[in-house]
Amino acid sequence: MATGVCMLLVVGISVCAAFNLDTSFPLLKMGERGSLFGFSVALHQDLKTESYLLLVGAPREKAEPNVPANHTGGVYTCPISANQSDCRRMKLIDPSESHVSLDMWLGVSVASQGRPGGRVLACGHRFTKLYGAFNLRQMIGRCYLRGNDLRYDENDSNWQDPEQSCSHLGDFTGEVMCGMGMSAAITQSEVIVGSPGSFEWQGDSILFYSDVFLPFQSEHLSSVTPRDRMEDAHGSVLLAVKRSDKLMIRQKLRGQQMGSYFGNALAVTDLNNDGWNDLLVGAPFYFHRQTEVGGAVYVYVNVGGRFNSEPSVVLKGPAGSAFGMAVAAAGDLNQDSFQGDPRQHGLPCFRDFWLLPFCRRGC
């Protein structure tokens, strides 16, 4: 592989330094220049060998030799090793398909189910399907699900979705360009994918249920709409409770600036160790010219099961950085039993968080 794009496996950009992150000798994995290698990352465990590997999305990767396209994107599996070029590409696209995988951005989102299921999910939101006698192109997106060994499992038929959820066969204006899979997650009972083009670009979250698990009686979910209303486009995060097959919206958090893409990234964890999960929301296109700010992360501290409409803390990045494009909880890195810092009067110090800016040039 060319060494034009790299992904840091151990990196932290934070307000407070964590003492046990080895920033002098980080492990690097290399991808092809221009492939956006590292755009999405997930940690995956092989349940047989107990070993770990990384799932790495490269949504602008060139197509495999037998696929009739120039670029399709791809997903790589990388061992946790010092070798910078030992990643291997997963075979996901069927070259015999008659639909259009050209520039589908496969790898825009990747996820690992974890124990006990151990499945893997990978999506490309620009996948295009051809409909009708005139081969009308509808950019509906597509997701691939594989077993713990990264292969297709015929026994997982109850998890597969042979009929695409987004198509013009139903509501043409609502689903024809839904872009399913721009974001994706998988639990032990559900696959959840974002479809920002649904409902005339207001966005939606689609849930697929596996019939081998009973759904929880009550589960709190969040859905994001970075451009939720045409008249202001501030973005929103919707907090809902799942009851049976319905989502009941309980609260809506609004962005503060038009076009900031509030809700582009979310992370949930208990920052102040009070037993309630707190919420972090990325807004990578937030800006302020006078103070040269570019990108923001909003922190909402959970107060007894509900969030205040205004954020508890707003972290801001330098101009042009798209700070908050990705937000992830890295766990208790400094082993103080806190995801944040209890000395900050109940507010997080972000000692244990990755707040990664988007690389605009030189990648």
UniProtKB/TrEMBL annotation:
Keywords: Cell adhesion, Glycoprotein, Integrin, Receptor, Repeat, Signal. The keyword Phosphoprotein does not apply. It comes from Maylandia zebra. Residues 1-18 form the signal peptide. It is found in: Membrane. Belongs to the integrin alpha chain family. FG-GAP repeats lie at residues 20-87, 249-309. GO terms for cellular component: external side of plasma membrane; integrin complex. GO terms for biological process: cell adhesion mediated by integrin; cell-cell adhesion; cell-matrix adhesion; integrin-mediated signaling pathway; leukocyte migration. PROSITE patterns: FG_GAP (PS51470). This is Integrin alpha-2 domain-containing protein. It is a single-pass type I membrane protein. GO terms for molecular function: integrin binding. The lineage of its organism: Eukaryota, Metazoa, Chordata, Craniata, Vertebrata.
